[in-house]
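The material for today's practical consists of a large collection of protein records. There is nothing in a record beyond a sequence line and a structure line. Backbone structure tokens are a discrete shorthand for how the chain folds in space. Nothing more is needed to start thinking about how sequence determines fold. As an example, a complete record with its sequence and its structure tokens follows.
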Amino acid sequence: MSGFLTAFALSFVLAFLFGYLCGSIPFGLILTKLAGTPDLRSIGSGNIGATNVLRTGNKGLAAATLLGDMLKGTIAVIVAGHFGGPNAAIAAGVGAFVGHLFPVWLKFKGGKGVATYIGVLLGLFWPAALAFCAIWIAVALIFRYSSLAALVASVLVPVMLFWAQHTALAAVFALMTAALWIMHRANIQRLMNGTEGKIGKKG
């Protein structure tokens, strides 16, 4: 029994570390540097995610950043799940999310996690990922705030997972949603003050 628990713990840790390394790849920073734009951390909010890349005026780079930040979560989940099963997939997904928020390469100062959150959700339960995107688009079209759209959609994810009887995933994503809200605390304050930047607005 102890041997089984040791093997399980080792598999969990390895999957988490694998996910963390995948998640810590700063696609926004890498792509903008390759494109010759100024350091992304000196633009707009200083964030390394796709929304801030969009503030450079390059929609293609923003789309590529969004895709990269999503896929690193999805790939971590799929690879870990293939070799270690469902529990390893969840561990890798959490690791990828944490890696994006706190990448070792950038002194643990990363992005806010929305794209990677979606990518992990896509790998673990894709219908909820599609629902997240639909909600995001609806809220963004109405209010023109990327942060608000992400916050609203993320709150509904654990509810959808619980309703679909994925209680373990619902618990995991409830924690990830809480972390995502914490990372967006400055955005929340700006939303309350009416000073949050709208989608498509530079600076």
Q: What stands out?
A: Residues 78 and 123 are 6 Å apart (CA to CA). The chain has a mean pLDDT of 92.
